[in-house]
Amino acid sequence: MKQKPAFIPYAGTQFEPEKMLANSAEYYQFMDHRRTVREFSNRAIPFEVIENIVMTASTAPSGAHKQPWTFVIVSDPEIKNKIRQAAEKEEFESYNGRMSHEWLEDLQPFGTDWHKPFLEVAPYLIVVFRKAYDVLPDGTQRKNYYVQESVGIACGFLLAAIHQAGLVALTHTPSPMNFAKNFATSRKRETFPASTRRLSCGGRNGPGFAAEG
Ligand SMILES: Cc1cc2nc3c(=O)[nH]c(=O)nc-3n(C[C@H](O)[C@H](O)[C@H](O)COP(=O)(O)O)c2cc1C
């Protein structure tokens, strides 16, 4: 017979309507101050802060609790330089022919172009991969569900946690992003302790999107 999964008991908090209203208004105000930022300081940020932020992202709900994501934290200047070069190559193509006229028009207010110096300035790049399937210890593949949606929600949690830590992020989506795989798999993998909340660093499948703080 299949073993029953061990769940972490839910310890919810109930509020009176007034407190609910105050909390929701306060959180809305707080989140309304989040902004996408495209210029970064290179101020050193303790790795543990980034680790906590990624752990927060990993608390997100996911299809059948498969947690089909991998967050790769990059701080090595050499890898950041390679990511910048690869991203700028794709962005150059995009801004010079690949993007539609309408798309370029929509981007105009942001003043963006193919130059992405922040990829080397920001102390951390967090590359987010989605996992279409898990590989079991015996090598068989096990499908994940609602992967795109789950990873998107986890990225939302990630951005909220970055904001809560007083940091800033840019969701950067150079397209196509397949190049990200080369950098994520070429280095030692660090795997966080497994629990009912799983989180792993070190990617394999296709990238989802990247943010940096
Ligand atoms: C999925 C996604 C992809 C994005 N890709 C880029 C990008 O490649 N480059 C960029 O400068 N901004 C990118 N952005 C940032 C948006 O332009 C930004 O979120 C939007 O203008 C709203 O601004 P705000 O985040 O400050 O509220 C992206 C945002 C999302 C959610």
Summarize the structure in words.
The protein has a single domain, classed as NADH Oxidase, CATH 3.40.109.10. It is 40% helix and 13% strand. It has helices at 17-32, 47-57, 77-98, 101-107, 118-121, 147-164, 179-185; strands at 69-74, 125-130, 133-135, 141-143, 170-172, 207-212. The chain has 213 residues and is α+β, with helices and mostly antiparallel strands. It is globular and about 55 Å long. It is built from seven helices and six strands. The strands form two sheets. The protein has a four-stranded antiparallel sheet, sandwiched between helices. The chain has a two-stranded antiparallel sheet with strand order 3-4. The chain binds flavin mononucleotide. Flavin mononucleotide (FMN) is lined by residues 35-36, 38, 110, 112, 170-173, 209.
Outline of the structure:
By secondary structure, the protein is α+β, with helices and mostly antiparallel strands. Helix content is about 40%, strand content about 15%. Helix 2 crosses helix 6.
Number of strands: 6
CATH architecture: 3-Layer(aba) Sandwich
**Residue-averaged pLDDT:** 87
In terms of structural class, how would the helical and strand content be classed? alpha+beta
Shape: globular
Element-level helix/strand string: HHEHHHEEEHEHE
Helix content: 25-40%
* CATH level-3 fold name: NADH Oxidase
**Reading side by side through the largest sheet, how are the strands ordered?**
1-2-6-5
Number of helices: 7
CATH class designation: Alpha Beta
Number of domains: 1
